[in-house]
Amino acid sequence: MNKRINFEDDIFLLMVRIRMIRDIITLDADPELFLERTLDDICFLDQSLKTLLGNLEHNNHLIERDELLEQLSNAEGQFSQLLKEFNDHEGNFSIRELPSLVEKIAAFRSCSQERRKAAGKLQPEESQENNIYVGSDELAELLKAF
To answer: Where do the domains of the chain lie?
Structure first.
């Protein structure tokens, strides 16, 4: 199995899935066909965001870690907003009459907000950003003269 994690692509794909679910709940789609799959997708998003944060927490040597944490925090914000919209929606995908789903969505939202706070704590303060990193392209350009 490939051990290299493509954080940027993974976060991008999660954001696409979040937008897709937001579109699904605003349409007049048939809940008998799409509700269970949508809930599965929400579970998948929750687990994936949790996994990515865990991987970033344990890999503090990534050069772009701060940017990735910011992107992940933004994805968590979008996920939390999706859960709020899903919970508050009154159309075909209304879950208000299903107390177990309301509780489950609230639990997902709480976990998402906690992960977003955790990602924010991992990011350095502005005053601590005195380290200058040189990317591989910049380094290659600098070394051309030698």
So the answer is: 7-124+132-143
